[in-house]
Specification:
mainly alpha; 23 helices; single chain; six-stranded mixed β-sheet; 58% helix
Length: 501
Amino acid sequence: MKVPQQRNLFSSKTPFLGSLNKATFIPQSSPIIRPARTLYSETDDRTLLHILEGCKLPPNFRTANSVHGKIIKHGFMKVGEFGVAKKIFLTSSARDVVTWNSTIGGCVKNGYFLEAIGLFKEMLNASIEPDGFTFASAITACSRLGALNHGQWVHEMMIQKKIQLNYILCSALIDMYSRCGRIEIAKSIFGTAVRNDVSIWNAMINSLAIHGLASDAISVFSNMQIEKISPDPLTFIGILTACSHCGFVDHGRYYFNIMQKNFSIQPQLEHHGAMVDLFGRAGLLEEAYALIQEMPMEPDVVAWRALLSACKTYKNHELGEIAVGKIKNLGSGDYVLLSNMYCSLNKWDNAETVRYVMNKKGVRKCRGRSWVELHGSIHYFKSGDRSHPETDAIYRVLEVLIHRSRMEGYVCARDSVFMDISEEEKEENLNYHSEKLALAYGILKSSPGTEILISKNLRTCSDCHSWMKIVSKLLNRTITVRDRMRFHSFEKGSCTCGDYW
């Protein structure tokens, strides 16, 4: 298959950011699962803290900064000990831009995104002038949270301080706006950037991929060739992901084949995994399995999990059991996929056995959580959550929406509840999913017609997907949901994914 080259680069208009809400409230909870403690003991914690305490009187800035540098470089941030690392950092009397950057960057690398934004604000309050490295970390933190207001605030500060945009900052801004649901602004930044580094092209292709814009991603890839920018392995991961999210099977095969033939790039585990995902989503389970068997290296857990997920979707328990048998250390998601696959086939005894094994091994199911950023604050919701201070009002809004959507033809997708419970219990379970609560709160606190952006740590279910489409039509609103895999933008009763996700 020959894919023609195209020249339709994006508009070069400068994005209008408008007024920004400079939020001061940063919640302490985070959707990120904390990494387990692995390397350091309590003795190590106390020893380092005692050393730093001893540097206070008399002041010993050289030793304090030396210890802090070693912590950042070798220790606690890398193994998830944010509390200890931050305490050591705050103990240091002489904190310059380098130590601030190291700490904020360490937070971002280890998934402490809220803490990174909080430290960025503390840095500003301490009158330490941020540089390009600081802004790159802050933008990345906003990107991972999907915190648009915070991201716009950081971007505007960069403009005010006349920070020069290099390829790192351009890539970070493209990624941030796309992950915050503003793909048009990401395109605009790409259109005005100096595109002489492959990372900028990769950022744009990956951004288009998570928005399900495979044709645009293919166009960008084609223009890379015209502008003489050589793709790297990450480029092909992005283009294969874009093809996977849109069911472009033939295009995916084409790009996978030209990696080595045209660009001398040997396909790695990640590329094979992307192809397994592409075939699996399209229902080509045997082709996905054959690709795994033909891999020139040992298949990793990602490939087997992609196959297992496809087996659950297409109810192929025989192949699903093979995939599970190849995953050496089953995580909670693997057990849940296997259990749900059995439930979809009404094999309740098998599903119960899987849950028994989970309980025996102490494996907990990762609980769904959704969050929405409004007026500078991030509000989190779990399924059936009643912890929010405005719970009563949220539930009233949600019940009205459910009633109105039923009048428009919405039928609860009870078959998406993989539990052997009554039909009434299934409906109750579905009615109060976390993304529905987040949407109800967004409607409660925003003006009519305003777009609502919701983020979710898991893949959105088919029931919520169908319901969101109807609600978008009822309220004449755009509802954008960023789940674990991609973006869904609901408008006028349809979704940008075309019901393929």
